[in-house]
């Protein structure tokens, strides 16, 4: 299972706190999301749209709070960095630096908060 | 791909462009190469398994070619997903198609990465790469202009603007079609099937029969016993049915038409009309009809024609029926003859 593999791989870092994202981080994360991720995950991260539906493994709804809570933030950063083997989700480590990886995930986690929950 | 690095101050403009063109992409290539002659676009690269890939070695197969890279966030996964659908629609016919993905990012697209990425979409897809010089020649041939674009100003990470077209090369090595990556997979599959359904390439017969047509018979004629007496008469008065067509021999050697048959009649024969003074005479051709190499033999009014004796039914305008021509070398060639007036 992916989460267990990530736990084993990250060890103590799985639940390590991640520095709180600044507004600047979130803005950069949003730009990178729309540039790099939205094609497959859709702009709203719900995984709907023509390309997401064509992919051999279709992305899920990343705005689902339960799904968002399933992985720790360091684990999500690792997924974006290394990808998920056997799926079209490849790793972005050759494109994104560490701060960009954190920014994308920080922005993505803001999408998982439903409006009614955030109010 | 269009990076915000190219227009960082115009995020809104970027969003609009993205919506109109593709998610973060545009076709940055100049006009595509013309549809040219066989092997005009030949190249040699290596696939993800280290095997040499030469385009001209694909003779007898269809080749679908695309230029992209594995870090592409939109056009390339769209194209690969589309190919997977095309492959599924084609079924067994996909065995005769080479799906070739040429990288525009050789630095990051190692053979291992290409193998891992393409396998997600289909084990059949080939990922091609080569030296900078080899790739540059291929890009030039297909007029692909990859351009590195940083993901933001000063960043080491980059995307690549590149052509979004895919190319279809037929079984004889001729570039036949260019598709936009947004063309529906069913449409692409339909185009491919057109090429796959007809035998072409090295194994295709070199002898073909074209434009077969027949005169309609008079109502009730088929039930009659109108004899063809080989005497003086005009073709318009023929009792039996008559078929005209062209035989084209594009092979290296001669062939010979030996016999003809059709389910619409009891006997089909090759006849020839000749002029005896001012009298038109018709006679059966004995010993077959020679079809020299490179020749086109026309069976047309006033010359050779096929007689359909003892028709089982009338031949009415608009009908089509099967005709089988048996050749000495090419074997049986089946055509559909259309019934129409001259």
Task: Classify the beta-strand content of chain A into a percent band.
Answer: under 5%
- Major β-sheet profile of chain A: none
Rg of chain B, Å, rounded: 29 Å
Question: Taking Cα atoms only, what radius of gyration of chain A do you get, to the nearest Å?
Answer: 14 Å
Order of helices and strands of chain B: HEEEHEHEHEEEEHEEEEEEEEEE
Return residue spans of chain A where pLDDT drops below 50 for at least 5 consecutive residues: none
Q: Structural class from helices and strands of chain B?
A: alpha+beta
Globally, the shape of chain B reads: elongated
Q: What would you call the quaternary organization?
A: heterodimer
End-to-end separation of chain B in angstroms reads 57 Å
**What share of the residues of chain B does DSSP label as strand, in percent?**
25-35%
Average pLDDT score of chain B: 82
Give the biggest beta sheet of chain B.
10 strands, mixed
Overview of the structural elements:
The complex is a heterodimer of chains A (119) and B (342). Chain A is mainly α and 119 residues long. In chain A, 56% of the residues lie in helices and 0% in strands. Chain A contains 7 helices and no strands. The mean pLDDT of chain A is 90. In chain B, strand 6 and strand 7 (158-161) form a beta hairpin. Chain B has 342 residues and is of the alpha+beta class. Chain B is built from 5 helices and 19 strands. In chain B, the strands form 4 sheets. In chain B, strands 10, 11, 12, 13, 14, 15, 16, 17, 18 and 19 form a 10-stranded mixed beta sheet that branches. In chain B, strands 5-4-3-8-9 form a 5-stranded mixed beta sheet. In chain B, strands 1-2 form a two-stranded antiparallel ribbon. The chains are: A mainly alpha (119), B alpha+beta (342). The interface between A and B is medium-sized, with 27 and 29 residues.
């Amino acid at each position: 299972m992916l989460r267990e593999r990530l736990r084993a791989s990250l060890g103590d870092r799985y639940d390590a706190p991640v520095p709180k994202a600044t507004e600047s981080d979130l803005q950069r994360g949003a730009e990178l999301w729309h540039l790099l991720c939205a094609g497959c995950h859709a702009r709203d991260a719900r995984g709907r749209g023509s390309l997401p539906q064509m992919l051999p493994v279709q992305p899920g709804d990343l705005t689902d709070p339960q799904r968002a809570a399933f992985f720790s933030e360091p684990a999500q950063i690792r997924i974006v960095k290394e990808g998920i083997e056997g799926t079209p989700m490849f790793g972005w480590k050759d494109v994104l630096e560490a701060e960009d990886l954190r920014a994308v995930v920080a922005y993505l986690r803001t999408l998982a908060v439903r409006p009614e929950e955030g109010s | 791909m269009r990076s915000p690095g190219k227009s960082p101050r115009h995020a809104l403009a970027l969003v609009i462009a993205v919506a109109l063109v593709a998610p973060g992409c545009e076709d940055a290539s100049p006009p595509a190469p013309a549809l040219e002659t066989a092997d005009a676009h030949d190249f040699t690269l290596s696939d993800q398994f280290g095997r040499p890939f030469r385009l001209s070695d694909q003779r007898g197969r269809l080749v679908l070619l695309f230029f992209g890279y594995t870090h592409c966030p939109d056009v390339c996964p769209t194209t690969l997903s589309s190919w997977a659908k095309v492959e599924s629609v084609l079924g067994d016919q996909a065995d005769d198609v080479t799906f070739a993905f040429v990288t525009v990012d050789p630095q990051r697209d190692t053979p291992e990465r290409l193998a891992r990425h393409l396998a997600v979409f289909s084990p059949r897809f080939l990922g091609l790469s080569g030296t900078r010089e080899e790739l540059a020649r291929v890009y030039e041939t297909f007029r692909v202009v990859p351009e590195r674009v940083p993901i933001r100003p000063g960043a080491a990470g980059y995307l690549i603007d590149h052509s979004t077209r895919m190319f279809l090369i037929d079984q004889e090595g001729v570039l036949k079609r260019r598709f936009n990556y947004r063309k529906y997979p069913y449409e692409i599959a339909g185009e491919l099937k057109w090429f796959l359904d007809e035998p072409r390439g090295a194994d295709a017969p070199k002898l073909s029969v074209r434009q077969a047509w027949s005169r309609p018979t008079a109502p009730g004629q088929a039930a009659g016993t109108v004899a063809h007496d080989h005497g003086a008469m005009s073709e318009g008065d023929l009792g039996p049915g008559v078929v005209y067509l062209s035989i084209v021999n594009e092979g290296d050697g001669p062939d010979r038409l030996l016999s003809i048959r059709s389910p619409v009649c009891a006997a089909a024969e090759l006849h020839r009309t000749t002029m005896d003074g001012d009298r038109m005479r018709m006679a059966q051709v004995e010993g077959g009809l020679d079809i020299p190499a490179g020749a086109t033999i026309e069976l047309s009014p006033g010359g050779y024609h096929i007689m359909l004796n003892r028709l089982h039914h009338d031949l009415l305008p608009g009908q089509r029926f099967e005709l089988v021509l048996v050749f000495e070398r090419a074997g049986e060639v089946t055509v559909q003859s259309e019934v129409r007036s001259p």
